[in-house]
Amino acid sequence: MAAAPAEEACKHRCILCNLTHEVESGRVHGRKFTCTPCASADRLLRRGLGSKDELQNLSVEEQHSFFQKLAVEKANAKDSRIDWKTVRACLVTSLTTRQMTENATAVDTQFLPLDVWLKQGWPEQTVRNCPKEWNEQYGCDTYQVPVKSMTWKQTYQAVEERILRQEKEATAKRMARPRGPKEAEPEAALDLPAPEAAKKGDASAAAEKKAARAEAAQEKKNQASNQKMQLLAAKAVAPLAQDLQSLTKLRARVPADLPEPIQAVYEDNVGKLQRWSQAAKGLLKDWEEEAAQTGKVALTAPPFDMADVKCLHKTVVEVQANLRQHLPVPKAKAAGKRKAAEAGAEATDTAAAEGAEANPPARRVRSKGGNK
């Protein structure tokens, strides 16, 4: 009976996995004991990510579970050795589980009509079992179906990307730090690609630099071109819109039965104004994207320049002049012109009559001649 307590006294509890081990299975630091598998995993974690900040996001029980899973993986491994790839995968899974647990109550809740939920594939009975309320705006009952805002796949990918980013940063810092030949450590445990030959590495680096320079030059060229096209669109959008508005308003006042040549020219100019105006507005909208402003993407050139816009404006003015000739004459204005013409004619006749009375024709006087 006394042997069991003595045997228990010879075992120590690991501060990382919370399991008991023989003294020979680890190291004691003061009052803390760390088993060999956990110590190896802890070193890989610090070396791979540069710190244990990600692990500290887990609770104490979750950290114990993390190291216990690694112990199981080590026992099942063929060479009984834990590599960085295994540690990283286990860490990503633990962090994903933690985040999904925290976000378990984060759901999107909105009230929508029954038809909307049915079109999205929800069973009718499931929707009817959810809370509902009467919507005055829709004039019908709306149902609130809770939908989880994040999936396991999305969370796992986000955590994995964060871990990989930290891994790259830690690797870059470690490679930048000078090391002696004795201090160099094997990189196999980190699951990193094997180094290539020096010549291949130099050629690859030179090719990457050349590609980077070409890409930077193209982005700079795109940035200048995009800015030039944005200025062109900003200058052209207002006159194009004004010409289109004035031309269509004037056409609405003209009778529908226009001569065919005038109608054809009108339609051609209106179509061109609409196309150019839409192109200018679309270009200004695309310019608002950061990729266009930085030159990451090249904008599509508009189908005009300012000279074309000015030429089109002159054509629009000529079309408007032709349209005004076919405007209907207002009735009041026509009657006024007719009365003015009649009054003018009457005044002319009166003046002629008065002139005739004031100046009668001269009488002819015949004189008698005699001899002296």
How would you explain this protein's 3D organization?
There is one protein chain. This protein has 372 residues and is mainly alpha-helical. The protein folds into three domains: 124 residues, no CATH class; 42 residues, no CATH class; 115 residues, no CATH class. Helix content is 63%, strand content 8%. The protein contains 13 helices and nine strands. The protein has a three-stranded antiparallel β-sheet. The longest helix is centred in the middle third of the chain and has 56 residues. The protein starts with a helix and ends in a 14-residue tail after the last helix.
Please provide the ordered H/E string of secondary-structure elements. HEEEEHHHHEEHHEEEHHHHHH
- Computed Rg: 46 Å
Please give the number of β-strands: 9
Give the end-to-end Cα distance, rounded to a whole number of Å: 201 Å
Tally the structural domains. Answer: 3
* Share of β-strand residues: 5-15%
Integer average pLDDT: 77
| Count of discrete alpha- or pi-helical segments spanning 4 or more residues | 13
Low-confidence stretches: 182-197
Strand numbers in spatial order across the main sheet: 6-8-7
**Structural class of the helices, strands and pairings?**
mainly alpha
Q: Tell me the overall shape.
A: elongated
Question: For the report, how would you describe the main beta sheet?
Answer: 3 strands, antiparallel
Q: Could you estimate the helical fraction of the residues in percent?
A: 55-70%
Region (Disordered): 170-223, 330-372
Biased composition (Low complexity): 187-196, 342-358
Biased composition (Basic residues): 363-372
Biased composition (Basic and acidic residues): 197-222
